[in-house]
Amino acid sequence: MSVNYAPVLWNRQKKLYDRLMLGFISLFLVVFIGLQLVVYPDITAETLIIRATGSLAFLMLHIILCIGPLARVDRRFLPLLYNRRHLGVTMCCVALVHGIFNLVQFHALGNVDPLVSMFTANVNYGSLARFPFEVFGFFALLILALMAATSHDFWLKNLTPRTWKTLHMMVYLAYSMLLAHVLLGVIQLEKSPVLIGLLALGAMTVTGLHTWAAVLNKKQDYDAVGAALEGFHRVCQVADIADNRAKTVMIEGENIAIFKYEGKLSAVNNLCRHQNGPLGEGKIVDGCITCPWHGYQYLPHNGQSPPPFTEKVETYDLRLDGDWVMVNPKPYPEGTERPPCRIHGVVEKLSKIAEEHEQGK
Amino acid sequence: MSKENNEFYIGWQPEAPDGISQRVRQFIWAVLAIVPMVGALLVLNQVGFADSTFEFGLPTELEGVLVKQPAPFLRVHRGKDLNGEAVYQNILLVGKGKHGVSDLLANMEKHPSMSLEGAKIRINGYLIYHDGKTLMEVEDIMGILNEGTGIAEATPLKQVGGGVFVGEITDPKCLFGVMKPGYGKPHRSCAARCIAGGIPPVLKTLSTSGKEQYYLLAGEDGKALNTEVLPFVGDQVMVCGSVKKLGDWLVIYKDSKKGIELAPGGLKGELPLCN
C-alpha cells in the first residue's frame, strides 16, 4: 500500500521475485541459444533473436496466465500473484524485442513503410491458411504494450479500477491472437508434432486451470436462500464463516464479502479498490480486512483503509435471524460506517433455547 | 480451519508463512524443470537451416559482362576448362535491402539511348551463395570498362525441358543466404516485399525424391514477372513454361497463355505437360 506514487515500491518479496524471474529468463536463453548454436550453427543472429524472444515471451505469457487460476485453486500460490506485474512488463519487453526484430527483418528496407508492409505484403485476409499471421502478432503486442504501460498504480487510480481491469482482461484476447499468430505462422513451416503438441498442451493448461478455478469459485460463493425479507436475504449460518475470514455472496449484482471477527460480523464490497482483488478471500489482520492479492487493507465496520491510506469500499447492513446471517444488498456509499452485527449474544441465546428445548422433552 | 489453510500471505511482510513458502518452492522447482525442457524441445524440433552464406561486411570486387535479361547477371570469366573452353560464372545481381538492382543500373545509364546490356563493368558488393548458386548484393558500380552494345556477350541459353513446375515462389536473395529460412509462411511477407522491390522471383521446387531445385521465373519474352507473381508469393503454385539453362541457373520462361495457379496439396516437382 502506498500514499504517494513511486516507480517501484521495492520490498524483500519483490526483490526475491524479480531475481528468480531474471534467473529463469537467463536459463531459458542460455539453453535455447546455446543448444541452437550447437545443433544448428548455420542459424543467423536475427533468426536466433526472433525465435528466442518469441518463444520466451510466449512461455512467460503462459506462466502469467496460469498464476491467476492457480492462486484461486490454492491460496498458497498467492505469492506468485503478488508481483505478477513485473513478470508482465518484462514479458512485454521481451515480446517487443521479438516484434521490432521481425518488423525490421521482414518489412524494413523495402519499397513501402515497414508498418504499411506488415498489413499489405500479404493480403490474403480471406484465407485461413494464407492469412497474414503477423497482423495477429502486431495487435497482440499492442495490447500487451498498453497493459505494460498502464501497469502502475497511477494509471489504476486515474483510469478507475473497473476500466483498468477491463483493459487488463484484454490479455485473453492477446493470448488468443498469439495462438493464431503461432498456428498460422511458424507452425505452417515447423510442422513437428512435438511443437504442435507443446502449443496444444499450453493452451489446454491455461484453459483447464481457468475452468477449474471458475468451478471452485462457483462452489465457494453462497447463493441467497429464499425470498428477501424487508430487503434482507439469507446467506449462510454464522458457523459457516471461520473466524477472521469471510464468505462471499452475489445478490442483485452486488458482490458482497461477510467477515466474522471478534464476535462480530461486517459486510463490505468484495472488490478491492486496488486491482479488484477478492477481499472475501482475504483475512482480518491487525483488525483490518487484508486483500489476498497485494495486502491492501480496510476496516471492516466502515470499509475505509486505515489512515493515511485513502481507499474505500461500499458497506452493507447485516442482521441475524436465529443463526442465519442476513444481508441487505443495497450498498452504502464507499466508506460509510455501519455498526457490526454482534453474534456472541445470539449464539448464547440459541444455546439456551436448545438447552431448554432438551429439558422440556 | 487447518493451520495450513489459515496461513495468509502478505507481500509487504518480510517473510511468507512456512506452508506457503513450501508450496511456492515446489512451483519454482517445477518451473526450473519446465523452462529448459521447453527451450530444448523447441530447438530440437525445428526443420533446420541451410548452410548458405551471406558475406555481409566482407566486400568483394568483380569484373564481368552485364546481362540484363531474363534477370540482371554479371558474367564473370573464371578461366578455362581442360578443353581450353572459357568458363563463366553467372552471378545474379540484387540491390540493397529489399530492392533489385535495376534502379542502380538505370542511374548509370546516363542517356535513354545508352544501355549497359553487354557492357563490361566493375562492381563491388557482398556475395551470397548456396547450392551452386551465387548472387551479389551490389554496393556500388565502380566503373564501366567498356560500354555495351545493347547485346549481351554470347550467352548460351540451352532449352532443357518444359512442363508444369510445382513449388514455392520466393526471392533468391533471402533464399540463398540472407535469411534463414528464406522460404515458407514466416518469410512470405519478406519475399513479397523483395519481389515488389525488383528482386527477380525464384521457384523453389522439391522433387518426389526430396531434392530441391531452383528456377528463376521470367516471362515468355524474358521480361520480369514480378508483378504477376506477387499474389502467389509463399504459396505452393503451378507454373507452366519452358526451361532454359543459363550457366549455373535454370530459368522458367512462363507460358504467357497459362496463368500461375495454386497447387493442390501434396503435389510436388515437375509434371511433363501443361494442361
Layout of secondary structure:
The complex is a heterodimer of chains A (361) and B (275).
Chain A lengths: L11 H28 L5 H29 L4 H5 L1 H24 L6 H7 L13 H16 L3 H7 L1 H9 L1 H13 L9 H28 L4 E5 L2 E6 L7 E7 L2 E8 L2 E6 L13 E3 L2 E3 L6 E2 L16 E7 L2 E9 L8 E2 L1 H17 L1
Chain B lengths: L2 H4 L11 H27 L8 E2 L5 E8 L5 E8 L5 E9 L7 H7 L11 E11 L2 E14 L10 E14 L1 H7 L9 H9 L5 E5 L5 E7 L7 H4 L6 E11 L2 E6 L6 E2 L7 E2 L4
Parallel strand pairs in B: 4-6, 9-11
Antiparallel strand pairs in B: 1-5, 2-3, 2-5, 3-4, 5-6, 7-8, 7-10, 7-13, 8-9, 10-11, 10-12
Number of domains of chain B: 2
Distance between the termini of chain A: 57 Å
CATH level 1 class label of the largest domain in chain B: Mainly Beta
What does the overall shape of chain A look like? Answer: elongated
What is the beta-strand fraction of chain A?
15-25%
Number of helices of chain B: 6
Percent range for β-strand residues of chain B:
35-45%
Describe what this molecule looks like in 3D.
- The complex is a heterodimer of chains A (361) and B (275).
- Chain A has 361 residues and is an alpha+beta fold.
- Chain A has two domains: 12-219, no CATH class; 225-360, Rieske Iron-sulfur Protein, CATH 2.102.10.
- In chain A, 51% of the residues lie in helices and 16% in strands.
- Chain A has eleven helices and eleven strands.
- In chain A, a hairpin with a 2-residue loop joins strand 1 (225-229) and strand 2 (232-237).
- The radius of gyration of chain A is 26 Å and the shape is elongated.
- Chain B has two domains: 53-146, Nucleic acid-binding proteins (OB fold (Dihydrolipoamide Acetyltransferase, E2P), Beta Barrel), CATH 2.40.50; 157-269, Beta Barrel (OB fold (Dihydrolipoamide Acetyltransferase, E2P)).
- The mean pLDDT of chain B is 90.
- The longest helix of chain B has 27 residues, at 18-44.
- In chain B, the strands form two sheets. Chain B has a five-stranded mixed barrel with strand order 2-3-4-6-5. Chain B has a five-stranded mixed beta barrel with strand order 7-8-9-11-10.
- Classes of the chains: A alpha+beta (361), B alpha+beta (275).
- The interface between A and B is large, with 71 and 63 residues.
